[in-house]
Amino acid sequence: MVNATYDIPAYNQSHGFAGKVLSGWAISGLATVQTGLPINITDSRGGQIFGAGSARAQICPGETYSDLLTHGSVESRLNNFFNAGAICAIPVIGAINGVGGSTGYGNLGRNVLIGPGQFNVDAAVIKKTTIGWLHEGANLEFRSEFYNLANHPQFANPTSNAGSAATYGVISATTVSPRIIQFALRYAF
């Protein structure tokens, strides 16, 4: 995260109206650039033999962690952020002749994938004007603040529970609001 403020070089305010308009400007910004959060792929249908509510997922035979990755931009992978086909049903333990038994735990490691990263820029433009004719040392400050300046979507992690078939591997939410602009006017005396 980078935070910076830059005061625009002052123009002599004694030059009348032009001096008041061209002086007292400042800009400020905050940039957030970070990798995504880990994704722990689970299966709510697993762990029944131990009475657990959820278990790690089962990677299919012959598949590797690199087979879980899909390629392309985050926007092109919203409906299949990772390869759900590389995940199989958790094996049944204790079945006799294919009857009975319960599911155990899957063999997939913890947090094997990383979710979408974040790149966000917030900025502010400030104009401070001295208004000595109302009160000595008084000033008027106008601020305009922009949150998510580029209006770029920041996506949340996908649904990572293999037991939720309809939304499994799908990104359905964002982590940052769309662009927000606010204005403020402050009189200080």
Describe this structure in words.
The protein contains one helix and 13 strands; from the N terminus they run E-H-E-E-E-E-E-E-E-E-E-E-E-E. It has one domain (2-188). The strands form five sheets. It has a five-stranded antiparallel beta sheet with strand order 1-2-11-12-13, covered by helices on one side. The mean pLDDT is 84. A hairpin with an 8-residue loop joins strand 11 (118-130) and strand 12 (139-147). By secondary structure, it is mainly beta. The radius of gyration is 28 Å and the shape is rod-shaped. It is 4% helix and 33% strand.
Q: Segments where pLDDT lies below 50 for 5+ residues? A: none
Largest sheet: 5 strands, antiparallel
Radius of gyration: 28 Å
Rounded average pLDDT: 84
* Assembly type: single chain
Spatial gap, N to C terminus: 34 Å
What gross morphology would you assign?
Answer: rod-shaped
Q: How many separate structural domains?
A: 1
Helix content: under 10%
**What portion of residues belong to β-strands?**
25-35%
**Count of distinct strands:** 13
Lateral arrangement of strands in the main beta sheet: 1-2-11-12-13
Question: What is the structural class?
Answer: mainly beta
Q: What is the element string, with H for helices and E for strands?
A: EHEEEEEEEEEEEE
Q: How many DSSP H or I helices?
A: 1
How are the elements arranged and paired?
Layout: E1 2-7, H1 16-22, E2 25-34, E3 38-39, E4 42-43, E5 55-56, E6 58-59, E7 87-88, E8 92-93, E9 102-103, E10 113-114, E11 118-130, E12 139-147, E13 180-188
Antiparallel strand pairs: 1-2, 2-11, 3-10, 4-5, 6-7, 8-9, 11-12, 12-13
